[in-house]
Amino acid sequence: MDELAGRDEIIEADVIEEGLMISSSSFEIDTSGIQQDLADLAEAIDGALTVYGDMLVTPEALGTMGRREVRQRELAVSRAVRGADEMRRQLNRDYKVPLDLAKKRYDELMGPVIALHAAYKQRRLELDEEEHNQRLEAIRSRYEELAPRIALSPSEGAPALVPFERIHGAYGSKWLNKSEDIDSVMLEIAGIVRGISEGEKRIDEAGLRHATEAKAVYWQTLDVNAAIARDSELCALEERQAALDEDCRAKEEKTAAGAMQPTPQPPTPAAAPATQPIVPVETPAQERKPRVMIIDGATDDECRAIGEFCRSLGITGVFKGPRFHEAVTRLQ
Q1: What pLDDT score was predicted for residue 52?
Q2: Domain definitions of the chain by residue range
Q3: At residue 66, does pLDDT exceed 70?
Q4: pLDDT the model gives residue 332
Q5: Can you tell me the distance from the alpha carbon of 123 to that of 117, in angstroms, rounded to the nearest whole number?
Q6: Minimal CB count within 10 Å: which of 106, 259, 307, 308?
Q7: Which band of pLDDT confidence, cut at 50, 70 and 90, is reported for residue 307?
Q8: Which of 3-7, 130-134, 210-214, 218-222 has the least mean pLDDT?
Q9: Are the beta carbons of 110 and 56 closer than 8 angstroms?
Q10: HEC string of the chain?
Q11: Measured between alpha carbons, how far is 185 from 141 in angstroms, rounded to an integer?
Q12: Residue 227's CB: how many other CB atoms inside 10 A?
């Protein structure tokens, strides 16, 4: 009934059927058998304690007894234990009967009461859900009224920039609590909208080179610093790309300039002088002797031409290199 306290309306219960009240006397259960069992158990325990006092001996005395006496004493104690244990089991059996009966009668009598409680609880939950939804829609309407440009979809199928669900998920964990004053919640909504608008204004006034991309990050995060950081990142990428393009352009210009220069050609070897046909001349026979011919300079082709000429005369020999030439020059 505490849940109904504080409400203005007066609730009157409808009487469904007269004569439905049930006297508590209908739950009376006979427990006289249990009382007797308790008395019997107490008596059996007292008897067992008496036997215990009569049979208790020291370990030394027990060690000196013969088998006959030990057996008699064992049987006496055993009877005392069995008697007490039987009374205990009897109590358990007799106690279970009224316990089961009490459970059965409880279910029969309390079933309608429990069902009535469930009905009231279900209706209370339905009313709470209705109140919850009404409060949620009031808060949503206030947000969309204050910020329609970002709260509502610009066209069919297009998502809103900042739908109400995002605002509620980020800030409204307590908005639906009954303990939260609805007027205070509406003031908080207005402050959130104002903060979003001021953040957008800061981005617009920052003169960012990539304002569109930065604004997209802002609508995703509602974080001005994240939006500005995105612009800085894009600017850095542009600068790196410009540097790479300039480097490639310089390399291409250098390659093109090199292609315009004439390629140095190797010197054309001098043509070997044409050999004239040797006309044998009849001269007096002369003695052939080793000779050394000093040539101040000649190319390989010129040396081959000289060699061909000498062979045509029947002269054989070999060309020596610069060191031999230097040695001969010193001897001169």
Answers
A1: 94
A2: 27-113, 206-258, 300-331
A3: yes
A4: 54
A5: 10
A6: 259
A7: confident
A8: 3-7
A9: no
A10: CHHHCCCCCCCCCCCCCCCCCCCHHHHCCCCHHHHHHHHHHHHHHHHHHHHHHHHCCCHHHHHHCCHHHHHHHHHHHHHHHHHHHHHHHHHHHHHHHHHHHHHHHHHHHHHHHHHHHHHHHHHHHHHHHHHHHHHHHHHHHHHHHHCHHHHCCCCCCCCCCCCHHHHHHHHCCCCCCCCCCHHHHHHHHHHHHHHHHHHHHHHHHCCCCCHHHHHHHHHHHCCHHHHHHHHHHHHHHHHHHHHHHHHHHHHHHHHHHHHHCCCCCCCCCCCCCCCCCCCCCCCCCCCCCCCCCCCCCCCHHHHHHHHHHHHHCCCCCCCCCHHHHHHHHHHC
A11: 13
A12: 26
Structural Rg of the chain based on CA atoms: 61
Q: At what angle do helices 67-146 and 32-55 cross, to 10 degrees?
A: 130
Tokens 């001969």, located at residue:
328
Q: Which residue has the tokens 């459970």?
A: 103
Answer for the pair 178, 132: CB distance below 8 angstroms, yes or no. Answer: no
CA-to-CA distance for 255 and 232, rounded, in angstroms?
Answer: 35
